[in-house]
Amino acid sequence: MLRDFVTISNMGRVDESSSISPSNLTLTLKNDGRFTPKNSAGAYFPNIVRNCQIRISVNATSKTGVAYNQFRFFGEVSSWPPGYDISQRDSYVTITASGIWRRISQSSVQIGSCYWRYVNLLTGTSVPAAYWGMEDGSSGTSNPGFTLSEGTGTNIVPTGTPGYAADGSSFLGSSALPTMNGARLAANVSAGPTPTNNVFRFALSVPAANDSSFSQFTLNTVATLISSAATIKRVDVTLSSGSQLTINGYTSTAGGSAAFTGTITTKVSGVPVIVSVEITPSGGSINWALRIIKPGGGAVLDQVTGTRATTTITAVTQVQFNPQGRLQDTVMGRPASGT
After folding, report:
1. Using an 8 Å Cβ cutoff, are 56 and 88 in contact?
2. How far is CA 44 from the centre of its chain?
3. Which of 85, 75, 81 is nearest to 52 (CA)?
4. 228 & 302 share domain
5. Dihedral angle, C-alpha 67, 70, 72, 75, nearest 10 °
6. H helix or E strand, kind and range, residue 308
7. Which residue from 25, 79, 111, 260 has the highest number of Cβ atoms inside 10 Å of its Cβ?
8. Mean pLDDT over all residues of the chain?
9. How many CB atoms within 10 Å of residue 146?
10. CA separation for the pair 216, 103 (Å, rounded)
11. Are 123 and 147 a contacting pair, CB within 8 Å?
């Protein structure tokens, strides 16, 4: 089948300023009818079509006696143009096959960040009841916000204007996330069955010098979890001027006196973390926990846990960010509520 030559070029960049080029294979085949797309008598009919897959392998032994048998190229043939010499007796087809990057570069669909793709690959009980990537930035409409990415609930609606896509370096697996810029964010979670536990997680990056709002305040509420039918109806995560996170649970959605409280000793200023609020039933009581996880870390960075007796939980009904509207420079995003 091979007539003249095979040329393979690898995918990559010529230099750091160039765009990625797809890997390519150029191959000339003698065409006795087998490589004519609409030839129903051809040996490979009806498989000689656009995007037909092709693989090239090498089976050889090196001069030192090392055997090699591996694929060197895998791609798709975009077309099968007929060719022949001036006598029209020598028929051939010269094809060009390209690697997967050709398809990706032609697509107009955003493939999403690493973290967004990870969430969309979750299955079973790992799928969050609601998840907002908060990577979409301003929608450009009269009421821009953040779209619900997974699960059931409403889009996040801001009161005020956050700094859309302001931070692209704190969380490397994510697209750029917003700074609060004094905006309040809230979204409802659709009612669900009684959960086996409630887990609320979000990304948090506090400036190394702490949020600029602490020139006026000593305590800011970072996020709030509402479960309006539960014994503990509201859980707040607050940030102190000392850069420490505290969890407070209340029996009323309006707050009041805390039914339980705990503070993580590790300071979060200058340390991007994933914050995890976890409420788990234990007989007639609940176990509660506030944990911080450093991206890429193999273990929980720090945590505070406790138990509250005679307490039940129900499904989460709402999540809020910066409900007091105080935080300015702090980056937040990727909230997920799971049950």
Report:
1. no
2. 42
3. 75
4. yes
5. 160
6. strand 302-308
7. 25
8. 87
9. 26
10. 53
11. no
Mark residue 78 as left, alpha or beta (left: phi above 0; alpha: psi -120 to 50; beta: remaining): alpha
215 with 275, same domain: the answer is: yes
Give the predicted TM-score (pTM) of the model.
Answer: 0.71
Give the pLDDT mean for 328-333: 94
Q: Are residues 193 and 73 in the same domain?
A: no
Residue 48 sits in the same domain as residue 191: no
- For 195, the domain range is 114-338
Runs of H (alpha helix) within 114-244 = 114-120
Nearest of 285, 276, 267, 215 to residue 247 by alpha carbon: 276
Contacts of residue 199, defined as CB under 8 A and 6 or more positions apart, other chains included, come to: 276, 277, 278, 279, 336, 337, 338, 339
Q: Name residue 12's amino acid.
A: G
Do 69 and 186 belong to one domain? no
Q: Would you say 225 and 200 are in contact if contact means Cβ atoms under 8 Å apart?
A: yes
Report in angstroms the alpha-carbon separations of 226 from 185, 188, 330.
14, 9, 22
Q: What are the start-end ranges of the E strands in 111-190? A: 130-132, 148-151, 157-159, 163-167, 177-179, 184-188
Which domain-ending residue is among 106, 137, 168?
A: 106
Which one of 57, 74, 106 terminates a domain? Answer: 106
In whole angstroms, what is the distance from residue 266 CA to residue 290 CA?
12
Closest CA to 183 of 29, 17, 8, 330: 330
Helix (H, G, I), strand (E, B) or coil at 222: strand
CB 327 within 8 A of CB 200: no
The rounded distance, in Å, linking the Cα atoms of 183 and 82 is 63
- The residues facing 70 across adjacent strands are 58
Task: Name the residue type at position 236.
Answer: D
> Which residue is it, tokens 């995918």?
11
CA-based end-to-end distance of the chain: 59
pLDDT of residue 142: 46
As beta bridge partners, residue 240 has 219
- Per residue in 43-86, pLDDT (tens digit) is 888 888 888 888 888 888 888 888 888 778 888 888 888 888 77
